[in-house]
Amino acid sequence: MLDTVLVILLTALLAIGALLTAMTSRLLRAAIMLAVTSAVLTAIMFRLNAPLAAVFELSVCAGLVPAIFISAIGLTRRLDPEGLKARFKDRIKRYWFLPVILVAVAAGLSQIHFVTDFIVSAPDSAGETVQTVFWNTRPLDLLGQVAALLAAAFAVVVLLKETTND
Amino acid sequence: MNILLLLILVPIVAGVLVLLSRKTIPHTRESATMLIALVNLIAVIALFGQDLPYSHSWGPFKAFSLDLRYYSFSSFILIAAAGFTLLVTIYSWRFMQDRAHRSQYYGYMLLSLGFTNGAVLADNLILLLFFWEGLLGTLFGMIAIGRPGAWKTAMKAFIIVGVTDLCLMLGIILTGTMAHTFKMSEISLPVQGLGITAMLLMCVGATAKAGAMPFHSWIPDAAVDAPLPFMAFMPASLEKLLGIYLLTRITLNLYKLSPDSWVSPALMTFGCITILAAVMMALVQKDFKRLLSYHAVSQVGYMILGVGTALPIGIIGGVFHMVNHAMYKSCLFLTAGSVEKQTGTTDLAKLGGIGRLMPITFTCFIIAAMAISGVPPLNGFWSKEFVYDAALSHHVIFYLAAVLGSFFTAASFLKLGHAAFLGKRDPANDNVKEAPVSMLAPMILIAAGCILFGLWNALPLNHLVGPSTGLAAEAQEHAGFHLPSLLLATLTCVALLGALANHIIGARANGGGLHAADHIQYAPVLGSIYKKAQTDGADPYNFATRVAGYFCTAGWACDKAVDWVYDGFTVWLTRTLSFAVRASHTGSYALYVLWALVGAAAVVIYLTRIMP
Amino acid sequence: MLPLFVLVPLALLMIVNLPVGQFLRRWSWGLTLLLTIAQAAALICFAPHLKAGGFLATLIPLTLELDNLSCVMLLAIAIVVGASLLVARGTVSGMKQLSNFASLVLIAMAGMNALALLRDLFSLWLFFEVVGVASFVLIAFRRDRGALEGAFTYIILSGVATVLMLGGLAILMLVGRGESSPLTFANVQAALQISGGLTAARLGIGMFLCGLLIKGGLVPFHGWLPGAYSAANAPASVLLAGIVTKATGVYGLMRVVSSVIPPTPGVNAVVLFAGAAAVVIGALGALYQSEMKRLFAYSSISQVGYILLGLGCGGPLGMLGATLHLFNHAIFKSLLFVNAAAVEQRVGTTDMTRLGGLGSKMPWTNVTSLIATLSTAGVPPLSGFWSKLIIVVALWQGAHYGYAVVAILFSLVTLGYLLLMQRKVFFGEMPAELANTREASPSVVISAVVLAGITFGMGVLFPLLLKTFLLPVKSIFPLQ
């Protein structure tokens, strides 16, 4: 019973956090909300018996990324209160249908009678460490991650660095 | 190269060359045409009496193989066609001298000669059809180069003959399918079932070529519009020769028509109607050429009547009449041409009394007119007697119709001769001279031929008509002055005398030769019929064009509707949809995400819930 | 040898970006172009030998496989990347920018090569992301408002795709429990054959399919596509339209539908419907479009729809048609974008209301554009005709008559809007301000001519190519 309540509570928190992140008209608040959302996700991951993922989530998504965001926001300029109000109204206008979608999706899901025969316990991977998983069975994915990181680096180079005339 | 191929190809190639020629050296085209016509005549006469088959197949296309055959019947037609072509060419030299389009005229003439040779020599129905359609083209061309506005008549002729050629094509396809071959000398089908349809369709094609009713209505118009030698060349001789040749081939070879079949009386009825209706129309014409042209239609009736009896004597009579008709009718058209050339008109009201100024033309006219009326002992008399005899052995009514036709023929020619050459002379025609020699010579030759074939009818009967129809014995029996029935001959003479009496009374009563037939034209019942016939309503062509007009209007409406579907509705629909698509792409990523989510939900629900 | 297709581009990327001054970076464009030529040459000349593992396979145990569909993809990647680089030479100014562009292209190329060769669903997703990130940057390369907006829309919809695909993967992983590597194609297929009827399995498949449909820009998942294609700079749009969406979404769909999911009528129905919707909506969107690149973008949606129609037939013939059209479309759509780049380079706009009569000034562009137009519309004997023909025949044989009619009908609409484009841009009256227009720079013209040559050659030599090169493609389909 307590378990179920906890799951519902955490999921609701996650949804609220995500919504607030999207809806707030202040960048700083959005960044903090994102961190909070990530923290809730971490809790859920712990709850789902995935401590490794939870640690990653907490350190990178809840810690590092908001830190980068906040430092970047420090370089920006605040809008005046009028502008903020207008932007908030604009967001309300643009996202009014989100609840509608939620209801629709919920209705759709309620129509699907899930068969629960696929819900099984997590595969037994106690013997394998993260390193072995990466290096021995999924080297290609590692390569992919390297490539994705490189692409992100170039994104910074191309999009954020001022081009100098050469 | 095979001589038969040369007979076809040389005139065609020469015709194309003449068509393309420029007028640089005077008289080259004329002399070239004349030379080719002469060589052609010499060649076909030299070949006379032989049986020359020729066959060349195009690989797997058996149906279209180039089969030619020169034998008695085709040789007869070829000689006649060659002779008329030569004579008309000579005649045309002076007649066409000052006219435009001479390259086309002589070019078409040579082409027509080549196509005629091809059609007659062809031993393959499809090949025949090919040349037949070629003649349709030259027919159109020759009418169209007449006086300004003649293209309308040309169009009329083209449509009428074209439609009937379509019938012929259908008939040929049916025949070939049933016989499993298109080779004419191998086809021999019974007249039953689908064969009747096929045969009738082919008969329509053949008789329409010959100009029978109701496919005749372009001929009187062409007589007025086309160059006159064309009338002597095509409707009077070549087309009659071809049409009756094919009709005879159909009823004699391709199908075994027996006198007992119902098709035979049907053909005969068709012939009788043509005789009577056309001759009645001829009787009331007030124009030299138009009057002649109606007779060109009327006389076909005798040929169809004769061939349609399916009796030996009838067939002999029909084919004999064909060649006789070609002679006297072309002679008559040539005299009309002389009159037109010398006086500048063919309107009977303006003519009259020129017989003394153009004595040779008048003499030729008299001989030909007597021949066409069937005055003994000229050639027309004999062929008509044969036809009468055959008609009588079927039913007396056919005979009566034929004799009645003969009566009116005589009456109308008495009227024509009286109005044109005798009576009071218009002062404007006082200085008229006799036609030039080159125009007189063909007339004299043909008129002499009429007398020759009349007095010595054994010559054509034994050597031309008999062998070609395969009825040599019957022909021999009636050659010379061996009439089938003396009684009938007497009755014919009575009818002719009646016509003479009628004319004299009529001329007295109505004043002058031109009005000699007025008492018939304005007779109580006939008057109203004539009135109707004189208006365009009676012309089947006009009726058909009116019906076609309705179809055109309906088709136009359909076309508009289809146009609207394409140009209006489709454009409107695509435009609307296109703008709707564009308007829906607002650039808002939230909207795009929404679409994607809805799409994903649809896919997932479809896959999990709807699919079994 | 196969790992080289992934490793060499990455290695080259590292080398040219070594921090040893500007020396190596000057060479990055040339070296990348050389690499594409080498890849194309290797595939044309040594395709049968490439499958052999060699010593590299033992050294670097990457699970890669080469089959005929992979060969076609790799060839298309090499050609289009090369074309894009040539266009970049003429349109991207500054050595540094060109070098950056070449580096991003190298990452995208490595990612796409890996996609063509890998045989694991999770890796498939991962390399989608690699190519995706490179594409975001390429779209935003110009850094103007439109480009950033286009890139942002793409990022958002890619996020949705990622969520759907990862969710689907998780479910599929649970369905195929108990394997040591549960997401290789073979294992997933085996698992689905046992439990494919389960609602959960279908849910997983459906979510993964939707992710792929977003990546491929199919209707109604296509919202990002017109903006992204038209806002990107010229060489990036060539790359994106020519190969990136094909190598990610369309190729992914083909691979997944043909060799991961066991044949199910439901999946085929979804693919067919999505294809038809894309054909219709794409063509309608293009019909009255006045912006050249946006028109091509909509046309791209429509043509991808044809590929899906072939795929949805669920037979070897349909698969052949889809593969062929994938290749053809990569070539002639790249060509159209190259032509757009040429116009943009010399006139500075692709707004068709301001263009006209350029045919006399830009003869090469004009002729190659005409070839691409006719090929796209499926006019014989160009290559597009054959692939469309095969697709229509496959649809007809599969008794999908309605879809076949749609395919034929919208082929006409395709001809209509592309000829309208041709008329508005290259024929007709020339506005006075365009009087001094010149032909595009040599590198752009060369790439247009090469692509046009391939389109033309493929079409004319089709009967020859069919037996030797194209027919074996069918062998990838399990239902022989």
Question: In words, what does this structure look like?
Answer:
The complex is a heterotrimer of chains A (166), B (612) and C (480). Helices cover 76% and strands 0% of the residues of chain A. Chain A is mainly α and 166 residues long. Chain A is globular, with a radius of gyration of 21 Å. In chain A, 14% of the residues are buried. Chain B is globular. Chain C has 480 residues and is mainly alpha-helical. Chain C has helices spanning 3-16, 23-26, 28-50, 54-59, 68-91, 95-117, 121-139, 145-175, 185-195, 199-216, 224-231, 234-259, 265-287, 292-312, 316-347, 363-377, 383-397, 401-425, 442-460, 462-470. Classes of the chains: A mainly alpha (166), B mainly alpha (612), C mainly alpha (480). The interface between A and C is large, with 32 and 50 residues.
State the gist of this model.
The complex is a heterotrimer of chains A (166), B (612) and C (480). Chain B is mainly alpha-helical and 612 residues long. Chain B has helices at 3-20, 28-46, 72-95, 102-121, 125-144, 150-179, 194-210, 218-225, 228-254, 263-283, 288-308, 312-343, 359-373, 379-394, 396-421, 437-455, 458-469, 472-478, 486-510, 518-521, 524-534, 540-584, 589-610; strands at 52-58, 61-70, 189-190, 255-256.
